[in-house]
Amino acid sequence: MSQAAKNLSPSTPIVVLLGGPGSGKGTHGQALAAALDYQHLSSGEHFRDHIRRLTPLGRRAAEFIEGGQLVPDDVTIDLVRAMLGGCPDASGFVLDGYPRSLAQAEALEQVASAFGCVVTRALYLDVSDDEIVRRLSGRLTCRGCGRTCHETSKPPARPGVCDACGGELFRRTDDEPATIRQRIAVFHRMIDPLRDFYRATGRLMEVAAEGPVQEVSARVIAKAKSSVAQ
Ligand code: AMP
Fold it and tell me: Where are the beta strands (DSSP E) in 65-203?
């Protein structure tokens, strides 16, 4: 085990966020991490960062991400090891975008324990397919800080410019309409076994995730806190 991993306490909690593309895992994950003082780790953001930096991991992931496919489990598990190992002092983690398959959830149990962590809760963000399409087809992402906004429902003050950091806004290649449909199909294939896995081990909580952002974040935080307090 790395020196970094040894610094984590024996049962550092991990809350995983499950949900379709555009269900708000990033937005609510950040709010939840801030409320609990945990580290927010987004697998998608970390992959995009590896792709930008042309790392070996980024090269292995790029073609899958651009085609709206899941990155193979072995590549993804390597990413999770790197993410957990990169935050030795975290008091807990909000894992956003991982796991996305039963195999990943099972692998996470081992990887978490090797890093002195334990998955305490899986929060499922429940959003309809119609709403996912609406959200993703207008979504703009900042090249600088990774925050998102929406062309019509949450437009930036200045077109093309991130309100948070002034960075350039762009449309992710996997937010194009054909790729969105592909991602939703992939999501439906994978989600049931994943929810069953966490339900069977008493860790699944479902959150109605449509409606005003702050209200949904508050629901997510309340659910997660009720579990953390156990
Ligand atoms: P996201 O930003 O969470 O929507 O992720 C963007 C893309 O990264 C996904 O469409 C997948 O191609 C890839 N990805 C992120 N997390 C995972 C994962 N846990 N397993 C497989 N692929 C992933």
Answer: 93-96, 117-126, 139-142, 148-150, 169-170
Catalytic annotation, pick one of 60, 121, 147, 183: 183
CATH number at residue 48: 3.40.50.300
**pTM greater than 0.70 (yes/no):** yes
65 Cα nearest atom in ligand 1: 12
46 pocket-lining for ligand 1 (C-beta < 6 Å): no
Residues 6+ apart with CB under 8 A from 210: 126, 127, 128, 131, 216
pLDDT at 230: 40
- Identify whether 172 is a catalytic site residue: yes
Residue the block writes with tokens 């090891």? 81
Centre of ligand 1 from the C-alpha of residue 42, in Å: 9
pLDDT band at 4; cut points 50, 70, 90: very low
Looking at the domain assignment, is residue 144 inside a domain? no
Tens of pLDDT along 19-30?
A: 998 899 999 999
Give CA–CA dist 129/22, Å, rounded.
10
Q: Is 25 a catalytic residue?
A: yes
Q: Report how far ligand 1's centroid is from the alpha carbon of 72 (Å).
A: 10
Confidence of residue 9 (pLDDT cuts 50, 70, 90): low
The domain of 27 spans 3-127+191-229
User: Quick check: CB of 19 below 6 Å from ligand 1?
Assistant: no
